[in-house]
Design goal:
The complex is a heterodimer. By secondary structure, chain A is of the alpha/beta class. Helix content of chain A is about 35%, strand content about 10%. Chain A is globular, with a radius of gyration of 22 Å. Chain B is globular. The longest helix of chain B has 16 residues, at about 250-265. In chain B, about 35% of the residues lie in helices and about 20% in strands. Classes of the chains: A alpha/beta, B alpha/beta. The interface between A and B is large, with 42 and 39 residues.
């Protein structure tokens, strides 16, 4: 065990069994050989043991299938490519305002989706483009939302930080740091209430859970502790997922958190610390936490140890508080896509040629999405005052310039 | 530029305000102690300068907030940590309620905490501490304790691309809280003078800085130590046809609307900057409306229960028989602050000019 540059204990899960991508063959002394087992279309992937707090770590063998591996790899590549194209669009001023990119953290979204279902609720922070994609949205509508057009998933009204997909229980997309966490507790309450015909507090199984994701900065917000307290008392099926990317804007976890071992912070809740750059570790932890909640045993904590390549947002170069070497080291040694590629090839599910084809198709899909985002029309003026209350609101004060003397001349639905 | 403050003789601050209300360069120079120079500064630079002087002149002054150590996300605290050390300029974790509560505690002990809330949109977790603790400490303890040394600075207002959570103007929520002082500067020189006055005022002050003007507004600012009076509005230009009232970034818009009214309608507009929202200088505004008979108020915040509502209510109470037209409010609409439709939402020059025109033609 040794302290890496990132200030946490690193158990190198460096694979030595595949070097087809030409990476360095240097193997630290603490590296373990990680194995895979294949049986037709089913497979098992070995992961490094997870660190556990007040619970038992799950098995280091993770079940998967060919379909899951291939789909996950493509989704991860799509996510990366989409975020990179958002970066380019921002730099050419097609996207304005606030834009927080998820590249580097893809394994968290992909791994969690592998470990749960679309019936489980997910709520996250403003770094939500990847989640909107993994929950089932089309990249076209995501990029069009970033450019603020009517073809966007929130009709151009929300922007980067406010993406939602109610059909698949994705509750967004939140600008205010930490505000989504009590929301997640509430979502869990509702899920359990609905499963149990009105009884939601106390030990009772349920058929869906809620994941409340937040970052290492948000972990210092008061409302997080409030939500955890309530969840534990009432045994709510909520999983508190800390996406620890080591920096809260420019503040490292060492300077911002009194206890940087986030998975132990919410005693007596059980917690797991997960290598957030390895999709299968994330899957194992997610599945274990989910089972714990569905059995009605109460909330769980997952700390995803991950990294973002970009700065906090597009206005942050990301290099004033960390070195270029640190970023490129993570990219070289722990990149989630490289890792999943190697596993896929090791499993024999795809060869290099097929992966290159996949990359090409991903690139084409994202190029198409960028075109859509550029050409989708601006939102209509009526979007400014609709959906403030219900859609039947006939009149929003002020929009006609004369108050209380008549109805808005632009009022929708032909109101008088 | 000569300006006058129309204050009836009953106003206790009359002598002080009249003395302070002349803002020609020579007056500003006279006000600054020691140095007689002016320097071109933008608004954030003026705030930075004000903070520096506040800390130099008060050993109990400390500056803290999220990321203020390296200078802050807008560079308002740039260089302060190097100058005054980490004991007096330090970062807090991401916890607005904690920042505000901590500041209240420090102020209660007699220190001069200058807390920063990174964006006014984030001030709501701190709302309880500000409204229930800071504003009421003196009253509830019968004067035994107070948090007069407390100043909370926060950038507010539309910035072009802020969307729902980086553009809000929350001054009305705080104006509704007796016990607080709410101050909003319109320009760099005003920002520095009002900030120094706010820090030194023996009451808790919420100091809202128009972020859209941080770099866009540049002005000659006295380099020395000077303060501008709180609780005192300023008449920016005299006029006889209509009184136009605003504060902060909106004054630029209103000035343009008044200029257009002059050019196209030959109208003479009296433009007033409130500067302090709570307690606000109703005497100046009412005296002006008594003269002109018409009033237009404008702010970015939504119209319902925005500060314009308070101004309208008071003006019609005090100047009813003098009014020739209803008091008009030109404000943001009653919607959350929109993302890409910001231009349609904001009370721009066209809407302000239209309101002035309609008021004149009533």
């Amino acid at each position: 065990m040794h302290k890496s540059l990132l200030g946490r204990v690193a158990t190198h899960s460096k694979s030595v069994w595949s070097r087809s991508n030409g990476q360095s063959a240097a193997v630290p002394a603490t590296a373990r050989y990680l194995e895979v087992k294949v049986n037709g279309d089913n497979a098992q992937v070995e992961i490094n043991p997870l660190k556990a707090y007040k619970c038992e770590a799950p098995s280091t063998w993770v079940n998967t299938t060919r379909q899951e591996v291939v789909d996950s790899l493509r989704l991860m590549m799509l996510m990366r490519r989409m975020e990179i194209s958002a970066d380019l669009m921002y730099k050419s001023q097609l996207i304005k305002g606030f834009c927080h990119l998820y590249d580097g953290q893809e394994a968290v979204a992909i791994g969690m989706e592998m470990g749960c279902t679309k019936k489980d609720s997910i709520v996250t922070s403003y770094r939500d483009h990847g989640w909107q994609l993994s929950r089932g949205e089309n990249p076209k509508r995501i990029l069009a939302e970033l450019t603020g057009r009517s073809g966007g998933c929130t009709k151009g009204k929300g922007g980067s930080m406010h993406m939602y997909l109610s059909a698949n229980n994705f509750w967004g997309g939140n600008g205010i740091v930490g505000a989504q966490v009590p929301l997640g507790a509430g979502l869990a309450f509702a899920a359990k209430y609905k499963s149990n015909k009105g009884i939601a507090r106390g030990v009772a199984p349920c058929s869906a859970v809620a994941f409340a994701l937040y970052g290492d900065g948000a972990a210092n917000q008061g409302q997080v502790f409030e939500a955890v307290n309530m969840a534990y008392l009432w045994k709510l099926p909520v999983i508190f997922v800390i996406e620890n990317n080591q920096y809260a804007m420019g503040t490292s976890i060492a300077r911002g958190a009194s206890n940087a071992e986030f998975y132990t912070r919410y005693d007596p809740l059980p917690g797991l610390k997960v290598d957030g750059m390895d999709a299968f570790s994330v899957k194992a932890a997610t599945a274990a936490a989910r089972k714990h909640c569905m059995d009605g045993l109460g909330p769980f904590v997952l700390e995803m140890n991950t990294y973002r390549y970009h700065g906090h947002s597009m206005s942050d170069p990301g290099l004033t508080y960390r070195s270029r070497d640190e970023v490129s080291n993570v990219r070289k040694e722990r990149d989630p896509i490289d890792k999943l590629k190697r596993i896929t090839m090791q499993l024999g599910f795809l060869d290099e040629g097929a992966i290159k084809e996949m990359e090409k198709s991903v690139r084409a899909e994202v190029d198409e999405a960028v075109e859509f985002a550029k050409t989708s029309p601006e939102p209509a003026l009526a979007e400014m005052y609709t959906e403030v209350f219900t859609h039947a609101q006939p009149y929003v004060r002020g929009t006609d310039g004369v108050y209380g003397q008549g109805y808005c001349s632009w009022a929708p639905h032909g109101t008088p | 530029r000569l300006v006058k403050c129309f204050v009836p003789s009953t106003c206790p601050a009359i002598t002080f305000c009249r003395k302070m209300a002349r803002y020609s360069s020579s007056s500003l120079r006279a006000m600054s102690t020691g140095q007689a120079e002016l320097k071109k500064m933008n608004l954030v630079g003026a705030v930075n300068d004000g903070l520096r002087i506040a800390m130099e002149t008060d050993a109990q002054a400390v500056v803290f907030g999220e990321d203020v150590g390296f200078g802050g996300v807008f560079r308002a605290t740039a260089g302060l940590q190097e100058m005054f050390g980490k004991e007096r300029v330090f970062n807090t974790p991401l916890c607005e309620q904690g920042i505000a509560g901590f500041a209240v505690g420090m102020a209660a002990m007699g220190a001069t905490p200058i807390a920063e809330i990174q964006f006014a949109d984030y001030i709501f977790p701190a709302f309880d501490q500000i409204v229930n603790e800071a504003a009421k400490y003196r009253y509830r303890s019968g004067g035994q304790f107070h948090v007069g040394g407390l100043t909370i600075r926060t950038p507010y207002g539309a910035v072009g691309h802020g969307g729902l959570y980086h553009s809000q103007s929350p001054e009305a929520y705080f104006a509704h809280t007796p016990g607080l002082v709410v101050v909003i500067p319109r320009s760099p020189a005003q920002a520095k003078g009002l900030l120094l006055a706010s820090v030194r005022d023996p009451n808790p002050v919420i100091f809202l800085e128009p972020k859209a003007l941080y770099r866009a507004a540049v002005e000659e600012v006295p380099t020395g130590d000077f303060t501008l009076p709180l609780r005192c509005a300023e008449v920016l230009q005299e006029g006889s046809d209509v009184t136009v009232v605003g504060y902060g970034a909106q004054l630029r818009v209103l000035q343009a609307a008044c200029d257009r009214a002059k050019a196209e309608l030959g109208a003479s507009c009296e433009l007033i900057d409130l500067r302090t929202i709570l307690p606000w200088d109703a005497e100046t505004v009412c005296a002006s409306v008594s003269k002109t008979g018409r009033c237009v108020v404008s702010h970015e915040a939504p119209v319902t229960c925005g500060f314009g509502a308070e101004v309208s209510a008071r003006v019609q109470e005090s100047c009813f028989l003098k009014l020739e037209a209803p008091v008009r409010r030109v404000c943001g609409y009653d919607t959350p602050f929109p993302l890409s439709l910001e231009k349609a939402y904001l009370p721009g020059v066209d809407r302000c000019f239209a309101a002035i025109k309609e008021t004149l033609e009533f």
